[in-house]
Amino acid sequence: MELIRIPRIMQDTAGGHFLHGRSIGLVPTMGALHEGHLSLVRRSKGENDITAVSIFVNPLQFAPSEDLNKYPRDIDGDTEKLRRENVDILFMPDAHLIYPEGFSTHVEAEGISEKLCGAFRPGHFRGVATIVAKLFNIVKPARAYFGQKDFQQAVIIKKMAKDLDMAIDVVICPTIRENDGLAMSSRNLYLNKDERKAATVINKCLTQTTELIKSGIIDIESIRRFMKEKLSEEPLITEIQYASIYSPQTLDELEKAGKGALLAIALKIGKTRLIDNMIVNP
Ligand code: AMP
Questions:
Q1: Backbone angles phi, psi at 277, to 5 degrees
Q2: Measured between alpha carbons, how far is 175 from 68 in angstroms, rounded to an integer?
């Protein structure tokens, strides 16, 4: 595995692969890698000649009040995991090379960035779209891999690629879960034992709401009430930011749930913010 830390060198390396007709698959991450990340890596390995993984904790997508400085980091563990997966390139740039002094250009998918998580994390998706646009320009992938776990992020990146004519196939991969259903996330490391147990309520709520919809209860009022009641049973939840049913395209709340609708939840357990979602397939 080649470790590249300098954007210019990454760009030249990618250019070389392009000249030789080799396709690159890119898996952008913030590190603290788990099986969710590795599932994207494996998908990329199966579909491309070269797989590049980026690890970059992007300061632009964290608000001053958020967890940038305490975001979990495990460079040695991550490197070992990626080596075992036979990843070709690990791109791990320093922040000052990505955002040199005077950097002032941003990308924003207006209309969808402000909804759901965007309403609670102003500027977050502007930071995400900007770093992903930069990574696309630096790594020049034919395909880039994102998890359904961060559904809104994936929708925004797809839209950005389409709106800005980026000839990159944005592939969305299924959410990988722990045995008890909790969606894998680097932030799960913040949870203490009781909070970790409490977090299983999220997947239970999504699964049971899917069952409710399948049984024919599809109006938004009933669904919202059911989800709220279910989540309220867990005393360690300190804040429910959203829990409802949405259009997977516009991310607007739906009046009635149908096939393909997006059930999505964002909440805090203690101080830890967790998100998860499920697509309804009756
Ligand atoms: P992160 O390191 O949290 O920025 O995530 C990097 C990529 O991995 C994003 O595309 C995430 O959606 C994806 N990802 C994170 N958790 C999971 C999971 N449990 N299953 C599948 N993909 C995931």
A1: -160, 165
A2: 24
Please check whether residue 178 is in contact with residue 202, taking contact to mean a CB–CB distance below 8 angstroms: no
**What is the average per-residue pLDDT within 189-195?**
98
**What CATH superfamily is the domain 2-173?**
HUPs (3.40.50.620)
pLDDT in tens, 8-42: 999 999 999 999 999 999 999 999 999 999 999 99
* Ligand 1, atom 11: closest residue by C-alpha: 147
- Domain range annotation of the chain: 2-173, 186-279
The CATH number of the domain covering residues in 186-279: 3.30.1300.10
| Shortest-distance Cα residue to atom 22 of ligand 1 | 147
* Ligand 1 contact via 30 beta carbon (within 6 Å): yes
Catalytic residue among 17, 34, 37, 96: 37
Catalytic residue status for 17 = no
149 DSSP 8-state letter: G
DSSP 142-177: SEEEEEGGGHHHHHHHHHHHHHTT---EEEEEPPPB
- As a whole number, mean pLDDT of residues 79-88 equals 98
Tell me: the pLDDT tens digits for 40-68?
A: 999 999 999 999 999 999 999 999 999 99
Region of 31 (left: φ > 0; alpha: ψ -120 to 50; beta: rest) is left
Segment 250-274 shows an average pLDDT of 96
- What per-residue confidence (pLDDT) applies to 281? 86
Cβ of 127 less than 6 Å from ligand 1 = no
244 touches ligand 1 (CB under 6 Å): no
| β pairing state of 24-29 and 143-147 | parallel
Read off the pLDDT of each residue in 105-115 and give the average, rounded to a whole number.
98
Indicate whether residue 40 lines ligand 1 (CB < 6 A): yes
* pTM of the predicted model as reported, rounded to 2 decimal places: 0.98
